[in-house]
Amino acid sequence: MKSGVTPGALAQLARAWDILEERKRILRGRPLPGSLKPEKPKSKQKINPWETSFIELPEAGGSDDEEATSASAAPTGEGISFAAPTVPTVSTPTPQR
Question: Comparing 10 with 80, which gets the higher pLDDT?
């Protein structure tokens, strides 16, 4: 040690240095080591594949060019076409007179 420096003066210097470093840490916005816990990963929502999947259906109809051009001109929503539901029909014989 240098002559004239007392152990009490060294202790005060060490405390002042520690306080200075602590204030610098606070001003920089850095947390204390170990005080910041990592965020929990967000759980993914369970998605029902039957509700969200789309099946592209072939276009119904004959090979008539006129129908194909008019059908392709209609907006179908991002290239996905949906087939109209079909209802079975029962033909009843007409009574002959």
Answer: 10
